[in-house]
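cron nightly-structures :: item 1 of 1
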Amino acid sequence: MQSKPQLLVWITCDGVHIDPGSGKHTILGVFSNIKARAFPVTHPFMIWFMMLTDVAPGTHHVRISMGRDPTNPAELIHRPFESQSPLHRINLINEIRNLTFEQPGEYSILIEIDDEPLLATSLTVSN
């Protein structure tokens, strides 16, 4: 039986620098909520960084959706990635540009790998 992909890291941040010599990832500006003075507000740029393991070899798809209604989130990212081995750790850097929040509150985030839910979490937006 094939194991399910495991999420080792989920971070919202301002940037990820990859050292060209070592390949190490440096995570910049980690945050867990967004504050705004007025709504609607548009956040210009953020990264959702994730590290996966136990992913079967081959091509897979990650989908990240978000919304106020956790039962009907809007798809923000849908892209392929490769796994060489279930033993590898796969770093996925997902750039989010100009994300608009109509009102303050909890925004549900759903991460899926190959249409299977992997994580349900949230991002707080407040004033």
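cron nightly-structures :: done
The chain has a mean pLDDT of 95.
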